[in-house]
Amino acid sequence: MNKTRPSADDAIRDIPDGATLMVGGFGLCGNPENLIAALNRKGVKGLTVISNNCGTTDLGLGVLLEARQIRKMVASYVGENKEFERQYLSGELEVELNPQGTLAERIRAAAAGIGGFYTATGVGTQVAEGKETRVIAGREYLLELPLQADFALVKAWKADAWGNLVFRKTMRNFNAVMCGAAKVTIAEVEEIVPVGELAGDAIHVPSIYVQRLVKGKDYVKPIERRTVRR
After folding, report:
1. Residue range 76-133, pLDDT digits in tens
2. Positive or negative torsion for Cα 207, 209, 214, 217
3. Helix (H, G, I), strand (E, B) or coil at 86
4. What is the torsion angle, in degrees rounded to the nearest 10, for the CA atoms of residue 119, residue 184, residue 168 and residue 109?
5. How far apart, in whole angstroms, are the C-alpha atoms of residue 117 and residue 105?
6. Is 184 exposed, middle or buried (0-12, 13-18, 19+ CB in 10 A)?
7. What is the C-alpha separation between 69 and 223, in angstroms, rounded?
8. Contact 139, 148 (CB under 8 A)
9. Which of 17, 38, 180, 224 could make an SS bond with 111 (beta carbons 3.0 to 4.6 A apart)?
10. Which of 228, 226, 224, 227 is nearest to 57 (CA)?
11. 37: CB partners within 8 A, 6+ apart
């Protein structure tokens, strides 16, 4: 039951070219920094990445984008990455934009085994193009389908050796919901404690949804835009 791996490189060693990945984080907060760096070193190409955003021009997932390792991004917000803009406008990068809540729910639907759901978000906009619609109680809704991946790379604060996860603050955004939405979930954590040390009520994601675990190191935890008072 011990799911720990000796390094981030070992944890992602079998991710092939062309894989579909979910990568947790919100902006640069809660990114699986070590797993992203390991993917960059491995040089895997042609990735489809499902994530709220694509980091900044030179941080987070932006590192993989700059190295031309990402073929397609399924995201909600991409405004902090100039290289993203350049690759998209030049036709080098395929992009599927989703409203943020819709993106989260599509991921959650996959983890919960839900075949699809109706939402009013996006009705009457480009988001609705080509999608099935239905009127419910006099209001129009869009059918959205679940998002699934081959691998999910997530960041948690603490775990035990079985893979029970505890998140802290903003890192819980998208990271927790991605667990279970992929065939293999790889969790990077800041601390691994003995089995039994985590209180049952404190566990956010149970170990059944986690296949591999690695202890991260040398965290930078960059801030996108540092603002201080005068």
Report:
1. 998 889 999 999 999 999 999 999 999 999 999 999 999 999 999 999 999 999 999 9
2. negative
3. helix
4. 10
5. 9
6. middle
7. 24
8. no
9. 180
10. 224
11. 8, 63
User: H or E segment at 46?
Assistant: none
* Residue 9 token pair: 């490189």
Which residue reads 């081959």 in tokens?
150
**Which residue is associated with the tokens 């209001």?**
139
Indicate yes or no: pTM above 0.90: yes
Listing DSSP states for 195-219 in one string gives TT-S-GGG-SB-GGG--EEEE--S-
Cα-only R_g, the chain: 18
Tokens encoding 63: 């590192």
SS3 of 134, please?
A: strand
H or E element at residue 87: helix 82-89
